[in-house]
Amino acid sequence: LSIQDGSAEEIARVNGAMTEEFVDEWRNAAYNCYSSGHKFCREVCPVMQVTRNESWTPTAFHANVVAMEKGELTVEDVAADYVNCTQCGACELRCPNTLFTGDFYRFRTRTVDLVKSVRALAVDQGIHQPGYQRWNLLTEDRKHEPVLGEFTCNGGVGGVPISQDHVADWAEGLDIPIGGETILFVDCEAAFYRTSVPRAVAQILQMAGFEFGLMREQWCCGGPAAEMGYVDQAKRFARHNLDDWRASGVKRVIVLDPHDYITFTEDYPKYFGDEYDVEIVLAVELFAELIRDGKLSPSIPIERSITYHDPCRLNKRKGIWKEPREILRSIPGLDFKDVDRVTQWSYCSGGGAGLPIEKPELTAKISDSRLQTAAELEVDTLVSACPWSERPLSEAGEKQSIDVVDIHELLAESLGIEVGGSRGA
Amino acid sequence: MSAVAAAGIDDRALEELAQVVGADNLLTSKPARLHRARVPAPFPVHKWADHMPDAVVLPASTEETAEIVRIANRYGLPVVPRAGGTGLTDGAVPFRHGILLDLKRLDQIHEIDLEDRTCTVGAGVNMLKLNEVLGRHGLIYPDDPASYPCSLVGGRIGTSGWSLVGSRYGHTRDLVLSFVHVMPSGEVIRIGDGGGRKISKSSTGYQMKHLFMGHQGTLGVATEATLKLYPKPEAELSPFWAFEDYESAYRCVRALARQDIATFAGAVLFDEEKVAYLRRDDEAYIPQPENVRALVCSVLYGNEDEVRAGGKRLMRTAREHGARYLGDEISEGDWAARHDRYATPLHGRTKAGQVVPMSWHCEDAAINWSQLPSVRREWHAIVDRLRRKSDVFDDWGMFAYTSARTGVDYLTEIDVGIWEQELDDETWAMWVQAKREIASVAVAHGGSISTCHGACREGEVDIVPEELGGAYDVMHTLKRALDPNNVMNPGKYGLDGAFEEDLK
């Protein structure tokens, strides 16, 4: 289906068919939510917590589909509402339909996929959110997300222009080869903004004797485009990356960013099916294993009082919460005030799924709220494992005098590595 | 603004509302209005658009709320308060459009008083979130409905909700000490036991707390509440027992309630249809031998010494009544699960056995123990007739909960699955008639139509005058006196009748 040419009538017909196809796909899932009416998702939703706006809740996102089926609403009526979601997945975990009836139906509430689908439906019908549109145009142009703003060629933060020529600048002096069976994939935020994270990861890998290289021509993973509804662009970027991997015989990709981890383990398999035979390794899991096996021994004490922020895409989306804690408990000197993973279902940085692009004020509020819970523990440091969370959390941390540190940076320090790079602005 | 014009609310009124709450907190888009018309099903979905408010306002203070109500009086606009929107009697559903007063931004915890063990919160605060904060002080606010993770304090007051563990700690009416109340005129008063904010016993003047709780928004709206707090219990015991028939379980549940155990928080009786339904369709149900046909669970909360002693006595009593204890693992797990959801798998079956997504509807009459078997027979017969007429309906069995420690009466619940996707005017009319019949059975047995939901949904509401008799006339008198312009949630509880007399 395409709406590029044709009369207004033709466009309306094509849009109508697209909406119908969408409603067909989602109607039962939407009814499962609508007919329960429980709304257990509401108070764990990070956006709801700071806005108290019932139109921006997982139940509303499902009910809209019912209303579309009844002819009460169109995608145009609701497209802007779907901006208000970080795709953190807390609602899915808290949903009684997932918790108690999932096995029976082989059913799971999939709010994140629903939000992505509505955003895609809107884009396909030419309904754009201005921030998302601009962001994806710039990404298309530069092959990386404009994480340093629009005019970084003239300097910007740290003076690194966002372009293919500079995507591996973070690795300066580390002698990492190009290609090989195992490569390290670095997301846009870490490659251009928080370069200390990939530097930490790369040097820990080197210390453990791991052989790895970098991509020949790395583009953005495409995940953010998919999250914002620009699916064709996401697929083109994915295609490029997979082709690059195959051309240089890559069998294994190490990722340090939870968002990349989702994209490579959920989106790419959907795009490529059996053709996609690449092993994806998450750095946090790998490092926990190396520590367990005695191949990494953090020994330099770090005198900090910390708590850990479970990144949504690890804890809520992938159930990964043990390994980061294993790593933190292995670092001497830390006073670790842990908060359990279930309590953290209702925590978020607000940095996901393009929320800071369209609603930076909401991201800031969500991060402020997250830092408030950290401050109540009387810690001096909040440790995260997601570069995308670390910018908004750091900004909120400044107000509370709480330092926001990446888990890889902390591990590297305890291993005696001089990390280098930049921790952002 | 075209949606607004179509909705027929005066532009000047809208401007005044925007001045009070700020333009960002006045919502007029169709999606925003549709979402504030919804409550848990059966709503019904095929009449959703009929119930849209004209505008939604989200006040951030008592003063803003009062000003909204004053504007409504000036323009003669209906005001429908909405907190969590999880109520089961359509209290938050606008019958006449108008202004939807969404209380969710009143979500501040104003005070935690560790000296006198109270806290004061906005009406938009959720109990689970509140308890996350109180837990740090070793305290708990034990208002514990099935909607605990999502309902809000303001809605609990407006519906005078009931608590699953109320035999131990009391219900909303006991736990809310006082509240700030915006009257239908817009005047702001404090309602409580006497005048003190944190007083639980007083014989000064009329006792008005009950009157201004459970009115479903027809007598104003609470904006801030002072709550009684308890120490977080050290211990919980939640045994489940199996029985071969309803009769034995029925006798056992009474015996448990009569033991006069101070830590006793409640007991629940599952009838044979309920167990059959869980066995048929609940994946969370842990398989039991076929001769298990009824269940009882009970729960104790308190300090370890007392819970242990009370538990022994409870176990002995159950054993003497032929109960088979299901073991610690099932008991702990199942209580957590039942407690944490509305206890239904949210699907049912057609008569041919086809699994279909269904919403859950629950009737909640208060019935004396002696009348339970008879009510049970008649209620199942009503739902059985419905089911024979249409596959839209499925009988999901009954629960009976103790509502007081002596076991004088029971929250008696029949759960009906409704296949909403297939609901139409004809099946809806069948359902409304069945609700009338269900309510009539409760009243005929000397009970009350509703223990905790309220009784203003279609069908049941027709039987309210019969239940209340002369007291229903007093409701009319009060409504007319306190809300002369009929702005507060008009149309609910048949209270329009109060104004028809004026018209004569």
Give the arrangement of secondary structure elements.
The complex is a heterodimer of chains A (425) and B (504).
Chain A: H1 8-36, H2 46-51, H3 58-69, H4 75-78, H5 90-94, H6 96-105, H7 111-124, H8 130-142, E1 182-185, H9 188-192, H10 196-207, H11 223-228, H12 231-247, E2 252-255, H13 258-272, E3 279-282, H14 283-292, E4 305-308, H15 312-318, H16 322-330, E5 335-336, H17 355-358, H18 360-375, E6 381-384, H19 387-400, E7 403-406, H20 407-414
Parallel strand pairs in A: 1-2, 2-3, 4-5, 4-6, 6-7
Helix pairs in contact in A: 1-3, 1-7, 10-20, 13-15, 14-16, 18-19
Chain B: H1 2-7, H2 11-21, E1 26-27, H3 30-35, E2 55-57, H4 62-75, E3 79-82, E4 99-102, E5 109-113, E6 118-122, H5 127-134, E7 139-140, H6 153-159, H7 166-169, H8 172-175, E8 176-182, E9 188-192, E10 221-228, E11 230-231, E12 235-237, E13 240-243, H9 246-257, E14 264-270, H10 272-281, E15 294-302, H11 304-320, E16 324-325, H12 328-339, E17 347-349, E18 355-357, E19 359-368, H13 372-389, E20 393-402, E21 409-418, H14 425-444, H15 464-468, H16 470-482, H17 497-503
Parallel strand pairs in B: 2-4, 3-4
Antiparallel strand pairs in B: 1-2, 5-6, 6-10, 7-11, 8-9, 8-10, 12-15, 13-15, 13-16, 14-15, 14-20, 17-18, 19-21, 20-21
Helix pairs in contact in B: 2-4, 13-14
